[in-house]
Design a protein that fits this description.
alpha/beta; 60s Ribosomal Protein L30, Chain: A; Alpha/beta knot; 2 domains; 9 helices; elongated
Length: 282
């Protein structure tokens, strides 16, 4: 989508009045970005000051920041970018009209989309790779991205998620902006399997019926690809056939399964602990 120019006469840090019409050029630009369904957007929406700050830390170019009139008192207290960026004040009814039924926050930004992550961005790292095989809940994908970043994973590969881009505003919000610093790659199952085989990354799966308890993952000292399926369907047959290791998380009777983001966190932690213990300085 071609980026429209930002009108220089109406930044909020120079003009006190709020934008009161969806026909205002700055409001119309937000509407254009929200309507865009491209898998390679040029401009993206980032919600919340924390996520905007994470984006700037990751080197993104923030184009403009919007604050709703109900949050005007917060605008001066928490500015995620400097005054060189255009700031606009939106009347609440304008914000509601722009976002319609979509969730929106009291502060959001438009930013230049970074280059989409690719499988090659996962090369050359000792960190584990998390593969989400058919996980479709964006909240879970975001939570796993945060955990993977915290525990030193190289990145996340997302298969059959329904997402067109990993810079989807829902995923940005769920990951707390970490999709800008940790590679999160959309790929097909064939592309993912080929990459893992070329890189000689050992594959580990989690399933309730696996014979090896998860603590055995500590004995795997090499980098692994941790394959996690959806809670409903589990890991696809193709990846189960390729698995070098199959683990289960022991649970008390009566508990059918764990949320996939919780399982990912436990498995990544256990493997990291085993690698640390095996290292010369561990």
């Amino acid at each position: 989508m071609a980026a429209a120019s930002v009108p220089s006469e109406a930044p909020a840090h120079q003009k006190a009045g709020a934008i009161e019409s969806v026909r205002h050029p700055a409001a119309r630009r937000v509407a254009d970005v929200l309507r865009n369904r491209s898998g390679r957007p040029r401009i993206i929406v980032i919600d919340d000051a924390e996520n905007i700050g994470q984006a700037t830390t990751s080197g993104l170019r923030i184009d403009s920041v919007y604050t709703t009139s109900s949050a005007a008192s917060d605008q001066c207290a928490t500015r995620p970018v400097d005054d060189g960026v255009h700031h606009y004040l939106l009347d609440d009814h304008v914000a509601n009209a722009l976002f319609g039924g979509q969730k929106h926050t009291r502060m959001f930004a438009l930013a230049r989309a970074p280059r989409a992550w690719a499988l090659d961005d996962l090369r050359g790292s000792r960190g584990d790779v998390v593969v989400l095989d058919g996980v479709r809940m964006v909240g879970n994908i975001g939570a796993i991205t945060r955990t993977a970043s915290a525990l030193g994973a190289a990145g996340v590969i997302v298969l059959d998620s329904g997402l067109r881009t990993t810079f989807d505003r829902r995923l940005i919000r769920a990951s707390r902006g970490l999709v800008f610093s940790l590679p999160v790659v959309l790929a097909s199952r064939t592309e993912c399997a080929g990459f893992l085989q070329r890189e000689k990354v050992r594959i580990a799966t989690l399933s309730a019926d696996a014979e090896s308890p998860l603590h055995a993952i500590r004995s795997v000292t090499d980098r692994i690809a941790l394959i996690l399926g959806s809670e409903r369907d589990g890991v696809s047959q193709g990846f189960d056939d390729l698995a070098n290791h199959r683990f289960s998380i022991p649970m008390k009777p009566g508990v059918e399964s764990l949320n996939v983001s919780v399982a990912a966190g436990i498995a990544l932690y256990e493997h990291a602990a085993g690698q640390e213990a095996a290292s010369p300085s561990g």
